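Reopening closed ticket. The problem is back. First fold of the pair:
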Amino acid sequence: MALRLEDKKALVAEINAVAAEAHSAVVAEYRGLSAEKMTALRAKARDGGAFLKVVKNSLAKRAVAGTEFECMNDAFVGPVILGFSMEDPGAAARVIKDFSKENEALKVTAVSVSGQLLPASDIARLADLPTREQALAILMGVIQAPVSKFVRTLKEPVAQTARVVAAVRDQKQAA
């Protein structure tokens, strides 16, 4: 079904608004995927904090114009699905990478982060980035480590004295 001009303008505006807020973008070729698998991919994307859209290449080029993802214009060749990471930089990459493991028909063609076009092979690096919660947990561990080591150092002379007293006690009881 052909889109009317108003529908095309609305679609371009929607994708442009999403691209302006997104952390990263992934372009993947979906040739050979059934409608059921595409529906499953969209459901995983919704659950994973990613925005996926199948768009005509000419409309995709217009939609990313003026955003940091304009560098992806050359990747819009053939039937492609455009994915944006909305919650954390690796969300769309994780969804597409996990889905492409099960479905070989989905092939990543381009990845973009912070206005830089990366090769499709970098999807694994982007997908392996920690989520916001994981990054905060790592940061808290790094912040907490010096304090806990300091407390352990302060506590050690008292613990060592207690061990020496216990050893002397055991030695006297054995004698």
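Second fold of the pair, where the issue appears:
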Amino acid sequence: MIYPELQCIFVHIPKTGGTSVENALVEMDGTVTVHAHDHRSLWAIDPRRPITSWLAPPSRTLPYLREAARLTRSGKPGPRVSPEDYAHFLKVAFVRNPWSRAVSWYRNVLRDPRHRARHGVTPKTGFSEFLAQHAGRGMLKPQTFWLTDRRGTPGVDVIGRFESLGEDFAGLAARFGRSTALPHLLHGRTEDFRRYYTDSDAALVGRVYAAEIKRFGYDFDG
């Protein structure tokens, strides 16, 4: 999501509180209409297209090509930004404990018929089965996927955490000289995500999301 007045780019990683952040930033900016759920990665937003971004190893390139295809099919490529503005706009994202995030996405899919059809699951699909099929894919791609630019490098300036969403957003608002409170638009159940996991499920998440676990210091207990 692009906010010209704030000179800010918000990278909305799914299930990290981003809908509330998007809408609060829209209100603060005042020059854009609501465009909720802009789940483009920084790679998709970045207007620079060096040839090296297409010559990267397939393991790094293919997920972004799939994202480009998805955006083309949707007909909603999202707001664009000039290379000059991209270079100096503040780039912001929020991250979340990957074990918690996986459970949140699972619950989200099961309660939405459209998501269930898209993911090939039923309301009775268990978490272990869902995780085995979808960990590391689609909206459950590693969070590091969203944080990498077209040059293949981390490009986000400010990274907040879902676990301290209100406090971290207040700090972000202060950078813009605002004191806007963060609305909690999507209310999930407050339950212990760990109860969904078997030991093998927890180990699977640990392997698939090893890079972000190391980078952000997460573990299964928090």
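Update: turned out to be a display glitch only; the data is intact. Strands lie at 2-3, 8-11, 90-95, 158-161. The mean pLDDT is 83. Please close again.
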